[in-house]
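Q: Could you fold this chain for me?
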Amino acid sequence: MQFRIGPVSVECVTGDIADQADIDVVVNAANAQLQPGGGVAGALHRYAGPGLAEEGRKLAPLHPGEAVMTGGHNLPNRHVIHCLGPVYGHDEPSAVLLARCYRNALLLAEKAGLASIAFPAISTGIFGYPVEEAARIAIGTVLTEAPQLKTLRLIRFVLFDRAAYEVYARMLEDVH
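A: Sure. Below is the predicted structure, expressed as structure tokens.
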């Protein structure tokens, strides 16, 4: 599923965030210490190697809604943007904090002059954010920010399973 907002393409795919070789920067749904964990963080750290955790250690801790950028290390991507999403029902206001993750990641990518970014469904795993609500916030934030983007030309949502893909694809269709 893909559509355009001016010169920016927004798409969603099913796949592995650590296997997006055509993307400049992938987004890590990070933990506060930017260390290996489960889910997206575990996958990215496994592929990137120990250098990612070493570089991240100097930038930690993150607070919900914050984002920082590191090198990609052994990933096929030049960079990784680490976002600490909110724990649903704990970090409030969760919708504001989740939107801030996406906005801050886009701003970091723009500041670095990057052309493409891939997002996972931040906070929907162990942090418990309902996929439908998270998708609405993620897509809404990207659509709001896209008209101001100068260097980013491709924004990809990489969803781990078909069920999440269906939610994101339906939301993209609804707004397009």
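A (continued): The domain at 2-175 is CATH 3.40.220.10 (Leucine Aminopeptidase, subunit E; domain 1).
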